[in-house]
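Q: Hi! First time doing this. I have a protein sequence and I read that you can turn it into a structure. Is that right? Here it is:
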Amino acid sequence: MTDLTVIILTRDEAQHIGRAIASVKDIATRIVVVDSGSTDETVRLAKDAGAEVLRHRWVNYATQFNWALDQIKGTPGWVLRLDADEIVTPDLANQLAAGLPDVDGIYIGRRMYFMGQPIRHGGLFPIRVLRLFRNGTGRCEERWMDEHIIVDGPTADLPGEIIDDNRNSLDWWIAKHNGYASREVVDILNQTHQFLPQETIGDLRGGQAAGKRWIKEHIYARLPGGLRAGAYFFYRYVVRLGFLDGRQARSFHVLQGFWYRYLVDAKLAEVQRHMVAHNVGPVEAIEVVLGLDLRAASSSTERRAA
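A: Yes, that's right. Below is the predicted 3D structure, encoded as structure tokens:
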């Protein structure tokens, strides 16, 4: 069996953490949970399930995950990035246990359930994501939203999959995506103003996620704000047959494919209006309008680089 360290980032994930750990317990050499201030039973449940729990203040996902990588420097073998609301399928677990190819990173499939129903249409899932890499060869790209793992060396594919099946309420989902929208605005403004270090897999060749990122940054971003949300929803719901999904899954296409994308554009316009009205730069406008402390993220990046 390959040496495997699984990293899971958590905050108030008592409903999911035991399930996530159980899905990798038989194949992982080490399970590291990095908690950012849970107020529920997440930490106790993770420890009871056999995980090692570290604590670190949250800035954004990329900063948190890269901090976790710093804590396991020198650990032999591979690293698997797993979200707390995800599980490794038995097929993928068997493939990992059987041994891995001589590469630096491995793409695996990721499927998603929404309110208990699988997303089968809309051109979204399964998506191939790089979640598995040799320790020391990969890192999370510096972004505030939609961050992926980057490796410099060769990659391969495994047919096994990860399942994203969050069991929280719709209110929780909406609140979380409201925060996602604010974070995505940071990345959009940073493309133009370059006030923070930022990487993008859209500059890399190959890979499904890289191709989607390139389209998002070079085509979608040039469409008129607001209108592009409607165009994207039409593509997903009609052209890619999202309407054929179950009732809850159809709600996902409406909420994530239109409401969320329109919310990003509305927040972007709000920050831009503040910049003009008060003659300030994007960092100050983002802090005032969206309540995000970009200076903390910049400091964390500088400390890690040092």
